């Protein structure tokens, strides 16, 4: 065999055995024992009972005192809810309406009506009767949008100013109607002859007698019906009243207050058609909040709380109030017993309030997975690998020995360089 051929065969055997060695069974890990980040359990705190974390439950935070110190605590509770694991704040607009300062709707309207009364009295003092009548009527129109119990006293003052104006304009019949309405709204009013002209006192006293005849007011609209400051039923409906001028209001938890002044005669039923005044959602939430704060007995309070919770879609709530300058809190759930006991906030952190709704749980981190090492022998200690390595060594030794001891038989020198073949013929 030629040396080149022997070398080639040896190298070929070495490569084949090397490939077999590279393909020898290496340690193969069971994919089931490897933690794949893409398929492993999601990171986070697993609850102590082994269940996945539940969806966060919205909780209403309600300021029943409409007080800044209580409001500050409510804001802290809302901040804690925003970062809580199990609980959450309610919808943003609802949450604000339950905590923010209540809108001073009646207060602003009362201030405007008071200004009209002052202007009317100033015009009366200057005998500007027409201007005084305009101011009085404007003030009454403002008060038709104010809660009756709040508006009634000031409405009576404006009706009295209007009666004086009409008397100054020589409109005696209109003056008597205005004075009669003043008396219906304020039956205890008396006039001091040191402050009023005799004709004013005489006309007012005559108007107090009124008429014993009855007529009707037909009220069209929705809500609670108030006639001359007294609640008389629900609308729509007809209501019996004395003949003369009356003021009708419609109120309701979910409507704006509206009113109308009507005249009832022996031949004509007074028509009080009052359009519904729709409220915005924050206004409705604020009304429900006020109703809860004003509830005086347990049954009314439970009913008001259930109505508010249903509207803002919560099943749990934190109620904050103030008593003797001490902030108090309690929680509510839509299951028995409903309200918890009332507690003074004291030194308790706001988080202690939420702990009553969601007691803190022990967070258990998942144990790290233990992956057993392969039990097979290392690849370099496996029999077939060792046999393959020994075969490579033997072949390498044999190849080297053959190469070192191989030689060709001697040949005679032939000066004829045509080749060995020609020399052999001689």
The largest β sheet comes out as: 5 strands, mixed
Radius of gyration: 50 Å
Mean pLDDT metric: 83
Strand share of the residues?
15-25%
Order of strands side by side in the largest beta sheet? Answer: 2-1-8-9-10
Helix content bin: 40-55%
Unreliable stretches:
21-45, 422-426
Q: Please, what is the oligomeric state?
A: single chain
- Taken from the alpha-carbon principal axes, the silhouette is rod-shaped
The tally of strands reads 10
Q: How many distinct helices?
A: 13
Give the termini separation.
Answer: 28 Å
Structural class: alpha/beta
Question: Strand-and-helix sequence, N→C?
Answer: HEHEHHHHHHEEEEEHHEEEHHH
């Amino acid at each position: 065999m030629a040396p080149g051929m022997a070398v080639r065969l040896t190298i070929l055997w070495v490569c084949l055995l090397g490939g077999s060695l590279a393909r020898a069974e290496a340690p193969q890990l069971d994919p089931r024992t490897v933690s794949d980040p893409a398929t492993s359990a999601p990171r986070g705190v697993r609850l102590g009972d082994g269940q996945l974390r539940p969806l966060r439950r919205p909780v209403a935070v309600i300021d029943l005192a409409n007080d800044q110190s209580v409001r500050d605590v409510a804001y802290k509770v809302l901040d804690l809810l925003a970062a809580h694991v199990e609980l959450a704040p309610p919808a943003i607009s609802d949450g604000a309406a339950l905590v923010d300062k209540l809108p001073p709707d009646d207060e602003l309207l009362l201030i405007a009506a008071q200004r009209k009364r002052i202007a009317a009295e100033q015009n009366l003092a200057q005998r500007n009767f027409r201007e005084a009548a305009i101011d009085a009527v404007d003030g009454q129109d403002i008060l038709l949008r104010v809660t009756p119990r709040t508006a009634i006293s000031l409405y009576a003052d404006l009706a009295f100013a209007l009666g004086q104006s009409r008397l100054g304009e020589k409109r005696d019949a209109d003056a008597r109607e205005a004075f009669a309405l003043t008396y219906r709204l304020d039956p205890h009013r008396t006039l001091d002859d040191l402050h009023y002209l005799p004709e004013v006192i005489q006309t007012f006293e005559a108007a107090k007698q009124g008429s014993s005849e009855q007529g009707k007011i037909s009220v069209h609209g929705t809500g609670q019906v108030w006639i001359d400051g007294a609640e008389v039923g629900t609308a729509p409906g007809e209501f019996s009243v004395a003949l003369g001028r009356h003021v009708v209001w419609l109120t309701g938890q979910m409507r704006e207050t509206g009113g109308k002044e009507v005249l009832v005669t022996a031949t004509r039923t007074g028509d009080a058609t009052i359009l519904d005044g729709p409220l915005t959602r924050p206004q409705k939430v604020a009304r429900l909040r006020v109703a809860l704060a004003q509830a005086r007995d347990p049954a009314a309070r439970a009913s008001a709380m259930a109505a508010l919770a249903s509207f803002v879609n919560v099943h749990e709530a934190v109620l904050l109030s103030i008593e003797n300058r001490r902030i108090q809190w309690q929680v509510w759930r839509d299951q028995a017993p409903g309200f918890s006991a009332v507690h003074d906030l004291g030194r308790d952190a706001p988080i202690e309030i939420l702990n009553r709704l969601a007691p803190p749980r022990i967070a258990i981190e998942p144990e790290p997975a233990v992956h057993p090492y392969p039990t097979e022998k290392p690849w370099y200690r496996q029999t077939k690998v060792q046999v393959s390595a020994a075969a490579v060594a033997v072949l390498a030794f044999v190849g080297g020995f053959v190469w070192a001891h191989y030689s060709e038989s001697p040949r005679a020198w032939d000066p004829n360089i045509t080749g060995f073949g020609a020399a052999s013929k001689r």
